[in-house]
Every structure is written in C-alpha cells, then in structure tokens.
Amino acid sequence: MECTITKLLTDGDRVSGAFGYWRESGRFVTFKAKSIVIATGGIGKSWKVTSNSWECTGDGMALAYEAGAELLDMEFVQFHPTGMVWPPGVQGILVTEAVRGEGGILRNKNGERFMEKYDPKRLELSTRDVVARSIYTEVKEGRGTPHGGAFLDISHKDAEYVKRKLPSMYHQFKELADVDITKGPMEVGPTCHYVMGGIRVDAETGQSSVPGLFAAGEAAGGLHGANRLGGNSLSDLLVFGRRAGLAAAEHAKKTATPSLDNAQIEEAERQVLAPFDRTDGENPYTIHHDLQDVMQRLVGIFRTDEDLRQALAELEKLKERAKKVRVEGSRLFNPGWHLSRDLQCMLTVSEACTYAALARTESRGAHSRLDFPKTEDAWGKKNLVIVKKSGAMTLLEVPRGPMPAELTQILAEDQ
C-alpha cells in the first residue's frame, strides 16, 4: 500500500516524524522517527515532455525545504536528447543512448547529419546537453521533423544486428509507434530527464542542514555538478544510498526519541482536506497542465532573462490558483486529491529552479543562457542555495568547497 507524505514534523530544529495518508483508503497516518531518509527522485513532472513517471513531482525536495533544509543547484536540469515524440501517448519515453553508441545517425527533415555542425569530433556521441541543444536548434530553425524532433536512424545497419544489439528499442518502436527501426528512422526529441540539484547534503553521510534529515539519489543535490553522465545515477543510488542509510541509523542510535507536536499534525490534516471543503475552485489537472506549459516554454533547454522573469510571474499566478483548488469524491484512491497536494510540491521546486536559473548569469553544463552563452570561472567557485527564510524563498550564493586532489588531477588531464 502506497503512502503520500504531506509534511515532515519537527521537534525544535530537528525532524521528529512525518504525516501523510494511505493512497488507497485516504486514512491519515503519522510516523515518529529519529531519522528520515528522503529518496523520492526528481522533478520532471513539472515539464510537459518528460521521461519521468508520475511520482517525480519533487515532493521530497519540497518537504525538506518546508522543514528548513537547503536546496542546491536547482537550475541544473538535464534534458535527455532522445525521447519518443510520436505518437502523443508515448511522448517522452526514452530512446537509449545505445542506439547512437551502435552507430545511429541523427538527421534533420532535409536528411542532413546535423551533429557535424555542433560537435564534429564526437558527433552523435557528444554529451547529452550538446545533443539535446543541437536537436532543439534544428527544430527552432525550421529543420525539425513533422512532430518537432529529429530522425535517429540505425537502419543502415544489418537488421539482425540491430535486433540483437537493441532488442528493447526494436520492440518499443514496433509496438508503440508502429515503426520498424531496421527499415526506417525513429522520430526523437529532447525530454526533461534528470535534475542535478536537490537537497543539500554532506557527501559522506547524506545529512542535510536539518538534524535527522538525510537524502540520497536524485533527491540529493551536488554529486553530479552541472551535468550528469549517462549511467552515473545508478552508482549514485548504490553508493550514496548506503552512506545515507548507515548515517541515518547511526544518528538514530545516538538520538533521544523526539516529541510529536499535535498542532503540526492538526494543521497538516486541515491543509490536506481543504480541497474537499471548497464549493468553488479549479480542477488540479488544469493548473498542472498550465504549469507544465510554463516550464516547457520558459524554463527549458535554452533560457533568457526575459523568459525566466515571465516564468516567475506566471508561477505566482499559478500558486494563487493552486490555493483554491477543488476536488470532488471521497478520499478513497482519489487521483485528483493526490494531484492537488503534488501541485504544491511542483510549484515549490519549479520556483526554486527558475530563481536559480535567473541568478546564474552564465552557461554551464545543462544550464544554457542565450543571453550569457559563456562559462565564467567566477561562477565555478560558488553554488546557488535556496532556503526558506521568514516564510519566503531566499536565494544565497555560497562558496564551493575544494575538490578532492584526485578529481582535480583527472579534470586537468581531461582538459
């Protein structure tokens, strides 16, 4: 049975537990805990075209933020270059990079191999951010495919070779798009995939700035810098998930049992039931649709000062609309009710991402500003941190800590 957590409970400056409800029955539940590990994934459902599943609403980050934790590097959102773009029902489902690794070629509607212009050395094997921006540019300049993407073609390879090396891709396109990739190209395009930012934690323990609150995986920020390389998230989960779990257990052994504040629990109940009590208000799905439109248009692959300021203004309007959201029916597995809560989380992380993107006046990794196209050394020496102060979202610049000597050596050799 799945449980939705709607609030982290605190005892002074430390976490004391969590409040939520069982999704099937709608019954409330309260957990008392000395340590909490957040491993809730990313924020992709704030964008219209995404590879993320319905769970990736940034709820763990938003809960931590509301409890006083810091969010780090929220501007760095990775767009995977090749997601399916047609038919609409499968939009965003990833096309593995193995297709390009096995010799897949990207072409525009004119049949041109356009990666020769953007990265003549690595071509289709360039980094995700470069390939995604290249496809986006081709589409923006009128050379995109019929459904707003690019053609990825592996059909020049032997059919049996393709089926043997890429069996999942062969079946995926055959079953979902009625396309035989051994005979013709796939239609692909950039899709919101991964956030490098998240809850600011200590690398060795996964401990956040709130005592007893830990995070791991995509919910934690800082590990991947400005851009994650393919495959690294899995090793991230194993290594840093273990560290967070061990540290959380050790913290619990040394910590006295916290007290639960009934006033916090009663307030959490009131907030989560409010959508049922309203006689007039908006459907949460309409607001979610508009949020995705704002983030896709204004906080996407390429960003500008004008777009980001417009996005912040639009997000303020959406926040006001979300305060009046209304749902019908009972608490028994009610998707509209679940979304009304998820909306609050998505609006929080979307605002954090937009604020940070506006502040970072350079291009670095997955963050690309058309009005500031260069990577600036000064920005490489600091991070952007989002924290809640006096009830308002506040952005801070903090010095970046020194890199380990072995990593510094590797980067120097690479350059």
Word description of this protein:
- It is a single chain.
- The chain has helices at residues 59-66, 98-101, 115-118, 128-140, 159-165, 167-176, 232-254, 262-277, 284-298, 305-322, 335-359, 405-414; strands at 3-11, 14-22, 28-32, 36-38, 71-72, 77-84, 105-107, 150-153, 186-195, 198-200, 213-215, 220-221, 302-303, 368-369, 382-389, 392-399.
- The chain has two domains: 3-76 and 196-399, FAD/NAD(P)-binding domain (3-Layer(bba) Sandwich), CATH 3.50.50; 78-193, Flavocytochrome C3, Chain A, domain 1, CATH 3.90.700.
- β15 and β16 (392-399) form a beta hairpin.
- It is globular, with a radius of gyration of 22 Å.
- It is α+β, with helices and mostly antiparallel strands and 415 residues long.
- The model has no long low-confidence stretch (mean pLDDT 92).
Helices and strands in order, then pairings?
Elements: E1 3-11, E2 14-22, E3 28-32, E4 36-38, H1 59-66, E5 71-72, E6 77-84, H2 98-101, E7 105-107, H3 115-118, H4 128-140, E8 150-153, H5 159-165, H6 167-176, E9 186-195, E10 198-200, E11 213-215, E12 220-221, H7 232-254, H8 262-277, H9 284-298, E13 302-303, H10 305-322, H11 335-359, E14 368-369, E15 382-389, E16 392-399, H12 405-414
Parallel strand pairs: 4-11, 10-12, 13-14
Antiparallel strand pairs: 1-2, 2-3, 5-10, 5-15, 6-9, 7-8, 8-9, 15-16
Helix pairs in contact: 1-11, 5-6, 9-10, 9-11, 10-11
